[in-house]
Amino acid sequence: MEDRRDLVILGGGLVGMTLALAAARAGIASHVIDKADPATLTAEGADGRASAISTASWNLFANIGLGDRLAPLGCPIDAIAVTDGMKPGRLDFRPAPEDGSLGRMFSNRDLRLALFEAARRESAIAWHTRAEPVARDRGPHGVAVTLDDGRVLGGSLLVAAEGRQSPTRDEAGFTPARWDYRHRAFVTALVHEKPHDNVAWEIFYPAGPFALLPLLDDAQGRHRSALVWTVAERDANGVSALSDTAFLSEVAQRMHGVFGAIELAAPRMSYPLNFHHSGRLVAERLAVIGDAAHGMHPIAGQGLNLGLRDVGALVEVLSEGMRLGLEPGDAQLLARYERWRSLDTFSVMAATDGINRLFGIPGRLPSAVRRLGMAMIQRTPPLKRFFLDEARGVSGRLPQLLRG
After folding, report:
1. How far apart are CA 148 and CA 201, in angstroms?
2. Residue 158 CB coordination number (10 Å)
3. Can you give the pLDDT at residue 358?
4. Which member of 38, 212, 254, 344 has the greatest number of CB atoms within 10 A?
5. Distance CA 239, CA 384 (A)
6. pLDDT at 388 (0 to 100)
7. Percentage, residues of the chain above pLDDT 70
8. CA distance 31 to 124
């Protein structure tokens, strides 16, 4: 017998589970299907990555009841320093006191733990872990997903939140625009001698951006930051082969002593960087969200935040439609979601891609031009305000869940 709910969400990661919780707050029940084991995902040391959560995304977490659980675990980002290879002409972004911080840094593990704990307590969420979909069926009257153990889970709307390699998106015939940056991001955490003062650093080198993102001090009171170091793919094997001591030496050279002496505080991880953007976000009884819809360069830390904006928009569209008597899979509602999200995701991704390419041009003249542009922004308050609002995620039309 088919077990039917409003939504069938494929993928129980950060975006998929946030959708399930946000939907539950709006009275929308869901199945969440994930092939991973939550215990493995949240094991100590399994994922050393951290995410920058914008002001708007923080509002979403607070509005779905996670604020008290997460607040002590996040490090505020009070300012961002942007430099071209640490040359003169630094650009500083610092919001006015009444605007609060630019966002907060959380370890991915802490985010997962909070989401998973809340999901276990929520009766509107049926969470199916270590489950592999073997068939996805969509039709005029609903959707059905058959799992590898024979169970059939039904609903009104299928949501693909499986990440960049989404089989549901591909099966639907969506053909995202793609390209490979031929870069690899090395990610870890550092302990450092000097405090970071809640400042995030984005240091641009021709080989790729080098980001230092503030984390809370550890249990011993040591200062910590997350590191995202981008290198050309041709150099990636060499960087991977470095000993921890040699790796730290390379990192220290690029930091120019800004935080003093450094040590590794987490395992080193790496992943290739590429771009993909789906021009289509919906089909019959199907919506695509998060990295299944758009994958971007981590240069501005907007990837997860874009996915959370997808969540807010989809929940708002569905809940308003259901109040009018429409079902979640109604084509009118899905078309509205697609119109709302298409322009925003495209503009953010195009801007991020453009910045990455601009700072990747080597040579003294391009560097001088970039620094001249940064100096102009530094001296033009309306321009700085525009970039601040973009960083905080509060520009454009925001879903209700992402408002303060």
Report:
1. 46
2. 29
3. 66
4. 212
5. 36
6. 73
7. 95
8. 9
Average the pLDDT over 53-71 and give the result.
Answer: 95
Burial of 241 (0-12, 13-18, 19+ CB in 10 A): exposed
Where would I find the beta strands (DSSP E) of 125-217?
125-129, 133-139, 142-147, 152-160, 177-192, 199-205, 208-215
Q: Three-state DSSP class for 252?
A: helix
Return the structure tokens found at 235. Answer: 């150099």
By DSSP bridging, strand 282-283 and strand 30-34 are unpaired
Q: What is the CA radius of gyration of the chain?
A: 21
Say how far apart CA 110 and CA 74 lie, in whole Å: 9
Residues 307, 15 contacting (CB under 8 angstroms): yes
Q: Token pair for residue 202?
A: 């984005």
Q: CA torsion 202→203→208→213, rounded to 10°?
A: -40
At 90, which amino acid appears?
Answer: R
Q: What is the pTM of this model?
A: 0.91
H or E stretch including 307? helix 303-323
Question: How many Å apart are CA 133 and CA 148, to the nearest integer?
Answer: 6
Domains observed in the chain: 3-74+103-178+274-359 (3.50.50.60)
User: How many Cβ atoms are within 10 Å of 4's Cβ, its own excluded?
Assistant: 16
Which residue stretches of 172-302 are H helix? 233-241, 244-255
Q: What are phi and psi of 130, to 5 degrees?
A: 50, 40
